[in-house]
Write a structure and sequence with these properties.
Layout lengths: L1 E2 L6 H9 L3 H4 L3 E2 L6 H10 L3 E4 L2 H8 L4 E4 L15 E4 L1
Parallel strand pairs: 1-2, 3-4, 4-5
Enzyme class: transferase
EC number: 2.4.99.24
Protein name: lipopolysaccharide heptosyltransferase II
C-alpha cells in the first residue's frame, strides 16, 4: 500500500501506518509530500488498484485506467467524476 498526498497529509499518513500491525506496516509506505507529480504518476501506473479522494491523483488514476474507488465528501462527483469505466464512486 502506498499513501500519496501533499506534505500537509504526511502526519495523517503516519496515523494510518500506526493503526496497522507490524506485518501490515511492512507492506505500506507513506509517500505523502515526498513525490513529484511525475513520480506519483509512475507509481500509480504500477498500482493494482487505487482508493482516493476527489483529487488530481484520482484523475491521473482514471486516465491510466487503473481500477479505483473515489471517495467524495463535500465535493460532488456530478461535477468532477473520475472518467473511467473502472471507477466506482462513494459519496
Amino acid at each position: 500500500m502506498v499513501l500519496f498526498g501533499s506534505a500537509k497529509d504526511h502526519e495523517a499518513g503516519n496515523e494510518i501506518l500506526a493503526a496497522l500491525n507490524t506485518e501490515q506496516q511492512a507492506w505500506c509506505r507513506n509517500l505523502a509530500g515526498e513525490t513529484q507529480l511525475d513520480q506519483a504518476v509512475i507509481l500509480i501506473a504500477a498500482c493494482k488498484a487505487i482508493v482516493t479522494n476527489d483529487s488530481g491523483l484520482m484523475h491521473v488514476a482514471a486516465a491510466l485506467n487503473r481500477p479505483l474507488v473515489a471517495l467524495y465528501g463535500p465535493s460532488s462527483p456530478d461535477f468532477t467524476p473520475p472518467l473511467s469505466i473502472k471507477a466506482r464512486v462513494i459519496r
